[in-house]
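Aim 2, interim progress. The first record below pairs a target sequence with its structure tokens.
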Amino acid sequence: MRPHGADETGRIYRRIPYGPLLDVFMLDERSYRGPNGPNRQSRPGPDTAFMGQAQLGWLTRELSRSRATWKVIASDMPIGLVVTGDLNAAGQPMYEAVANGDGPVRGREFEYADLFRFIKRRRIRNVVWITGDVHYTAAHHYDPSRAQFHDFDPFWEFVSGPIHAGSFGPNALDDTFGPTVEFQKTSPVLNAAPSAGFQFFGQVDIDGLTGAMTVTLKDVSGASLYAKRLDPWTA
């Protein structure tokens, strides 16, 4: 971890360049978030923070500056999967990630709506999300034609993890940003031990000649479960 001044010696979020074809943007969605809660606020505020304004500002600046063909955002939490924890005293679910159930942009979704709108308006091409937290693997495609919020370009999210923990899923999808499941594999048994073999990871390859990216989702044995080739958008 490279230091970022006296006040951010342990900062996690950073850009990792891999030459002209790839920039990876590592996010930190734990350190700057507001408290978990019902996540249904109708306007942004301190309680709706997830990345936080400093990190979100950094991400938009770095995406704008990037000249790499592919911009991969590595996020520790999924975008459109509903992740809930315990109920609060009023019996409402406490949401742990971004999604809060179907409907318009609310709560933590405000930051993502701002980010998606920015990417579209700045014509930042070839943005792909790699996310984790939920204990299975999936490929999701997001499209404004299916969404409650429409001001964004379509994009892909690939989910895998963790590699050594109990398995569960699948989680429900939130329609705010219009995701659909293109592929998923879960354990048939809730909280199956790693020895059951329902652990997953992903592999990303970029062709040096064509610039095409291929994302392959694999099980713990290394067997390929699903592969998606993405051709770069150069317009």
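The second target in this work package is listed in the same format:
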Amino acid sequence: MRTTFGLGLTLACILAAAPVATAQSGTDPIAPKRVQWSFQGSFGHYDRASLQRGFQVYKEVCSACHSLNLVSFHSLSEPGGPGFTEAQMKAIAASYKIPADPNDKGDIFDDKGNRLMRAGTPADHFPPPFANEQAARAANNGSLPPDQSVLVKAREGGTDYVYSICSGYGQTPPAGFKVTAGKYYNPYFDGWNISMPQPVSDSSVTYSDGTKATIDQECRDAATFLTWAAEPKMEERKHLGFEVILFLLLLSGLLYLSYRRIWRDMH
């Protein structure tokens, strides 16, 4: 009797606790929006125009806070990339300032204490917007903006997640949810309170190709560019995979014909 009562009491406690657990998980991020991308599937490829627009969004908006440490300038003109010409790539690289090596006196600072800088070259990587983590946190209310080089690969949901976060602002929080001071409501972010303010708005950039710069378009282009940054050899990998499969099919056919020829007189 006591055992039955104990089991019943335990079950009652579990059932009573269930609504509490549900309430605590109420700020789990909602599933990312599902978007059709040109690079999806075995024969997918990057949209060059979107890549170039996405680079423009990164350079004019995202690079104010986010680094792209693993991406070098020369990759902008390589096969499988955004499709910039070599001259365009070199001009882009030269527009960035890179910390210079020590001069002939061994100095890395000028007489005013400023770091010696030089124009970027194709071999350089994109320079970070802040000198170090402390400077980055100081400029962002204690939060550290993540490097975007492999952000798409590092987040569950990949490209859809990046696009959803970018375009997920401007919604009304549900009743009872409190937006923390200094944070912003975004239901696609874990906990719904995100440190990053809305990154883009209509006409945040003026696209050089004349495309209308809506929030949706800017987020799509930025997500496409960051997907390429995380996987610049995707098209080459897919082409190689197709060639390997074709080779294996031909090899299988030749092996089958060889088998038939060798064993036809044995039956």
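The beta strands are 97-99, 117-119, 184-185, 193-194. This observation will shape the mutagenesis plan for the next reporting period.
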